[in-house]
Amino acid sequence: MSFKRGPAAQVWVGAAAFVMAGAAWSAQLPKGVTLGPSVEGITEYRLANGLKVLLFPDASRPTITVNVTYLVGSRHENYGETGMAHLLEHLLFKGAKNNRDITQQFSDRGMQFNGTTSLDRTNYYEVFQASKANLDWALQMEADRMVNSFIAEKDLASEMTVVRNEYESGENSPGGVLFKRMQSVAYDWHSYGRSTIGNRSDIENVRIANLRAFYKTWYQPDNAVLLVAGKFDPASTLASISRLFGAIPKPKRSLPQFWTVEPTQDGERSFAVRRQGDVQIVAVGYKIPSDLHPESDALGFANEILGDVPNGRLHKLLVETGKASQVFSFGQTGYAPGLQFFGAVVKKGEPVEPVREALTQAVEEFAGKPPSAEEMERVRRSYLNTIERSLNDPQAVGVALSEVIALGDWRLYFLGRERIQKVSAEQVAAASRNYFMRSNRVTGTFLPEEAPQRAIVPAAPAVEAVMKDFKPAASNLVAEDFDPSQQNIMKRTTLTTAGGVKLALLPKKNRGETVTVDLRQHFGDEKNMFGKGAVPALTSAMLMRGTTRYTRAQLADAFDKLKMTGSPTHFQTTRANLPEALKLAAHVLKEPGFPEAEFEQLRQQSLVGLEASRAEPESVAARALARHGDPYPRGDVRHANSLEEDIEDIKAARLDELKAFHRDYHGAQPAEMAIVGDFDPKEITPLIDQLFGSWKAPANAAPILRRHVEVAPTAQTIDTPDKENGFYIAGMNLDLNIDDPDYPALMLANYIFGEGGLKSRLMDRIRQKDGLSYGGGSDLAAGSMDRAGSFTISAIAAPQNLARLDAAVRTELARALKEGFTAAELAGAKSGLMQQRLQNRSDDGVLAAGWTAFLYQKKTFEWSAELERKLMAVTVPQLNAAFRKAIDPARLSVFIAGDQGKVKPR
User: Fold this and answer.
1) Is this model's pTM higher than 0.90 or not?
2) What is the number of H-type helices and E-type strands within the chain?
3) Parallel/antiparallel/unpaired status of strands 671-677 and 501-507
4) DSSP letters of 661-680?
5) pLDDT tens, position by position, 346-373
6) Mind listing the pLDDT tens digit for each residue in 722-758?
7) Which residues pair with 505 in a beta bridge?
8) Is the alpha carbon torsion for 215, 221, 223, 228 positive or negative?
9) 348-351: Cβ within 8 A, 24+ apart
């Protein structure tokens, strides 16, 4: 078994930490419930109908995660049914027997929710404010939709087009298209060769009967694992689960068996995707064993040693020499043998063949140049740090466990941590030699040869054999039950100063002794920043690329050793490492090295990124709206640059200018810093004064404010050829400040209209009813120190649907203005917004950033509490009056970007 490799499957790690639960609750189990294994606070129970239940009680913040993993993914689909597992995931949000409008219920409760589908599993989760009512609703809803979902013909009609639009959105991505082709070319027979999103014709033509049969087969208690993590009572929760899920009969059907084994590859393969675009990508892929196989851990090390940035061999070989602008690596693996990818991004117009040759040689000769002790330690430390951080957050663990659940046993997550510590350089080299060979490579077309080599990919071992020697490790991680109310935040926070730095210090006991730091600096003023071009942004980007004491690679190692994640101005570390982390952050901020080679890398990466956006509908349309009616001249820091102006600025920047800008503009007077988490303020405050107290830039710093301007409305269509998906954005400027009397009512109106997720009026129309768009919404912005506000609406859609999307947006906007919003909608918006705000304050990173923003604005969380009191006091007449006063459809400027050749129906 191994951990997923690379950026495509990294474990998400939350900022907050959790209290470790006590011993597994086992006394007086409900009838029919049996107790299973327990590891580090997670306990398994089994219902008589086969449902596995994992309980992870933790009271460190007032949220609960409910996650249901079904052991079915795209590999279980049959011919003509590709994409069906994912389409069914969408339909499970369309209602069930006792929950006819699930998304409305999510919205009313302010719940974060989603569903995801992969090769081996499908999972559904919701994260919400901890309360018995919320938990009871979530459990009964998941039990209901497990076997009682409608899977209705009328819902398929609209949701099919939504999923097709999601497919079209993926077709816009050069990398996304490339890796779908890599899958299909690599495999002859196994279903891992099919992308989870599916084939367009299968998405468009799937029959409701097939979906219902698929649902009835796989969505059953004996094929599911339910996980509840967070602040809840285990005994009452298990009783509720037994009552709600235990009532579902154990199915009588037998699950289908799959016997297809992919033949050993008998020669290198290559292909080319030729589409319009602005970057070049070259990639190689190799078939490798299942995540259950012992060699998978060693291959994971090979992936990191070769593909890491900036320490990986490929980065040093291709990026630091200027042959490529970027490298990447990741594994697409699971229950069955999978694929390992390595690749590089090359600037348009630059030669690709030398990069392909160097890339292939580096990978396939890797076994002959085994990893060094330093490389092994770096990867091992990085993996273990990632696991440690994830175990500090049951919400993150809940999502991560879905992957190992699909392999057969959730405890594989903990076994993997033990196996990582035993992987040797010799094992890494041996595993690489077995699979990173020419005859097992995918880069192109079939080529015959007289004496082909063969890479025999072994079958996955039985999970029982993998688990036979596993013994769970003990854990003693603890945290406090922190109340995220504004009153408690104010009570617990010390506001002080250290030199010129305003400080907000909020100590609290966190799981894993984590602590978050946020520093807000201010550079220049309206006059002295004029004409600086790309220099300020490039200066900040260079800080982590080397200092007077560290190279870029050494600096990355230094951050890792101190368990620092983030940037020098916003990072998380641990109590023991905080003093040294602050010293390192101060060193990075005050003593950058500005190495010339790194500057040229940054310049090229920036230029490649800009060129890549040249024909992307979302980038093109958003930039056009920003530039429309821009009142600021070229050179003003507030000016909205054209793409060519951005390119010109980056090309014009010189390293001496960056050094001078840092010398003259960077400092900590004025500045704001917030520290939230496990630390001692008495120890840290003098250190901050020592590190930042006297650091003052020579250049004057003052708020750079924007002014409200009325902009003449316009409607423009921009052609983005050969793009499957399009983008719609409409906006208008508002004369609005966060302290205005109408601001709370406008926040609620915007939530109802387009910010409130799937059950907002906008998404209910363009996704739920019309099936035009996979994603969209509205945004309300108000000035915090000026009056430059705005209201924007955006959505993706197929080019041929953009005109209908525009009409639907205008219809819904007119309906809202004419008919107004209802009392029920207002109540749901208040509930949703308040719970979201409470959850945000439970996140240490959000809390720290909130404090620095408030300190700069000369506010505190008392202002936040007052805003919420105003929100709760808004009446329906006030809500509708504010929206009608601020929003005028005649003032909207609309920009639509898409392939105009696809506008006519096919």
Assistant:
1) no
2) 32, 23
3) parallel
4) HHHHH--SSSEEEEEEES--
5) 888 888 899 999 999 999 999 999 999 9
6) 999 999 999 999 999 999 999 999 999 999 999 999 9
7) 494, 675
8) positive
9) 348/277, 348/278, 348/279, 348/280, 348/608, 348/611, 350/280, 350/323
